[in-house]
Write a structure and sequence with these properties.
Blueprint lengths: L1 H7 L2 H12 L13 E6 H6 L8 H12 L3 E5 L8 E4 L16 E3 L4 E3 L6 E3 L12 E4 L3 H11 L5 E4 L9 H10 L5 E4 L12 E6 L13 H13 L10 E6 L5 H7 L3 H15 L6 E9 L2 H22 L5 E13 L2 E10 L2 H5 L9 E5 L6
């Protein structure tokens, strides 16, 4: 339970306090006021006729911030321009031929890219299924946010800091130096902008969509959303200039978003702990994720069924108490690099001891004790 509480704390702030204490200069640690946080309901924005990426509140705050010569961070946990490409006539969605996932449109190079295996294809002008030229890009990525900033704020000098723009050696330092020296005043980025940056001129942080990772099929989705929101909010107000955070969401009443807006670590911790206790998730039970990857959809499904059956038989034969076998089920992304993926989840006080008599598992299986993610 204490490990969970530690994870939801602001790691960067805790390390700063510890370093100050260790050096004997605890009196030099300055506690700045937490930034003001506003949550904007994007449903209300739509009802008011605002179809922009930016809520009216964020637009006004950006204009004010930029007019004062200060800087803005815009956070979005998704790369690219559009999250999928679709034919508006027949509904065909462009997918990776090697993975069971959609291709993301990137304006740089006019490419469609798979973010799992790296497959790339030129943007299509006609639908492969029906031949229609009515191709449309849906979803939101960092490149599209950058384009919207340029269109809406002529005074803005945006810089995009994500995996696509910083792949070359040393590029992280170049981008950060560019921003810190004032050659850009709006930084648009993914998770890397949330962690450990000390940027005194950043007085406004805008979270474009707080819902991006909240509904992933993983019991830690709420914890990760809260953690990320707290981290990115911590980039504002790191100087006497103060700071403001605007979080945009379609579900502003969800616990992680509400708790983050109130800087409520303890409240989130208690709610998350109650959820984990009720659902028998860590820290109340431990998990083992058994993942199978192999060629052929039916072959992979059968391998998963056989192992789940074998595991249940072993538990029943040995009379092992308080153990659950969940699945088999297809993984969140069912195919990557032409390998079909199925998983079985084992929930127990000591999953390793349950599995040990069954080792080694057949070829194609991988075991992850206490998995960081279930995706």
């Amino acid at each position: 339970q204490q490990n969970l509480l530690k994870r939801v704390k602001d790691t960067a702030r805790r390390k700063k306090i510890q370093a100050s204490l260790a050096s004997g200069r605890a009196s030099e640690f300055v506690s700045l006021p937490l930034p003001e946080v506003e949550v904007v309901d994007l449903r209300e924005e739509l009802r008011a006729g605002n179809r922009s990426i930016f809520s009216r509140s964020l637009q006004a705050a950006m204009r004010t911030t930029l007019s004062r010569g200060e800087q803005v961070i815009l956070f979005l946990n998704r790369r690219g321009t559009a999250s999928f490409v679709i034919c508006r006539d027949c509904g065909y969605v462009m997918t990776c031929p090697r993975c069971e996932t959609t291709l993301t449109y990137h304006t740089s190079g006019e490419l469609m890219v798979c973010h799992y295996c790296g497959y790339r294809a030129k943007i299509v002008e006609e639908c492969p299924r029906c031949g229609s030229d009515r191709i449309r890009f849906f979803g939101l990525g960092t490149q599209r946010v950058e384009e919207a900033v340029k269109q809406m704020f002529p005074e803005a000098q945006p810089i995009r800091w994500d995996w696509d723009s910083t792949r070359t050696k040393g590029s992280h330092h170049v981008f950060l130096d560019h921003f810190m020296n004032g050659r850009a005043n709006v930084m648009i980025g993914t998770q890397m902008v949330a962690k450990g940056l000390d940027l005194p001129l950043v007085t406004l942080v805008g979270v474009i969509s707080a819902d991006t990772a909240l509904y992933l099929p993983d019991f830690r989705a709420g914890e990760r959303t809260f953690q990320l929101l707290m981290q990115v909010a911590g980039r504002a107000g790191r100087s006497p200039l103060g700071g403001r955070v605007i979080i945009q969401s379609y579900t502003p009443d969800q616990v992680p978003i509400e708790a983050a807006s109130n800087h409520d670590y303890e409240g989130f911790y208690q709610m998350e702990l109650a959820f984990r206790r009720e659902q028998r998730y860590p820290p109340f039970k431990r998990l083992a994720l058994l993942l199978y990857q192999g060629p052929g959809q039916e072959r992979s499904a059968e391998a998963a069924r056989q192992l789940a059956y074998r595991l249940r038989q072993h538990i029943a034969r040995q009379g092992i108490p308080a153990v659950e076998v969940l699945g088999p089920t297809p993984s969140y992304v069912r195919r990557i690099r032409n390998q079909y993926r199925w998983h079985v989840l084992l929930r127990a006080q000591d999953p390793a001891s349950v599995l040990r008599p069954l080792l080694p598992l057949p070829q194609g299986w991988r075991v992850d004790i206490d998995p960081v993610t279930l995706l």
